[in-house]
Amino acid sequence: MGSRDRDGRISLLPSKLHMGATITTRQQAALERLIKIAQADTGQSRRAAEFLLSWWNASNCGGFDLTTMWGVDMEIAADMVTVFTLVASCHRYPDDLGYGEEFRRIVHAWRPALQRDVETRTIDFHDTGLIHR
After folding, report:
1. Is residue 64 part of a domain?
2. How many domains are there within the chain?
3. CA 14, CA 116: separation in Å to the nearest integer?
């Protein structure tokens, strides 16, 4: 990924982030907590997965209904808000931030039909976000 500055922000190469944006330690921690939750098998995991996959590729993985946050613990909802701010500020996909493999595992767990379509090439890899952009 990148290096941390003295304030705990992760600075990625300029080509990786929009106009020198950074990911803070807090944003990174929230993203990694959501990824861990999304990789489990609970109702809240499904909701976390929907949220994350809507960032990775909403057209193929599905969008995210904001009222879905009503069904998660407040700590998870707060992490979603933090990651939403990250997405708005960095202008990058998660695989550009080094989380491609984690997101592919989430697709495998929560969107198996999409995973099969990619493996059988009935849909274009570029349209799915299942390869590095």
Report:
1. yes
2. 1
3. 35
Which amino acid belongs to residue 88?
A: A
Query: With contact defined as beta carbons under 8 Å apart, do 66 and 103 qualify?
Result: no
Interval 28-86: pLDDT, tens: 999 999 999 999 999 899 999 999 999 988 888 888 999 999 999 999 999 999 999 99
Neighbours of 82 (CB within 10 A): 18
- Kind of pairing, strands 10-11 and 3-4? antiparallel
Whether 8 is in a domain gets the answer yes
One-letter amino acid for residue 39 of the chain: Q
Question: Residue length, the chain?
Answer: 133
Please indicate whether residue 20 or residue 115 has the higher confidence score (pLDDT): 115
- This prediction has a pTM of 0.74
Q: Is residue 15 part of a domain?
A: yes
Q: What are the start-end ranges of the H helices in the chain?
A: 25-38, 43-61, 74-90, 100-110, 112-119, 125-128
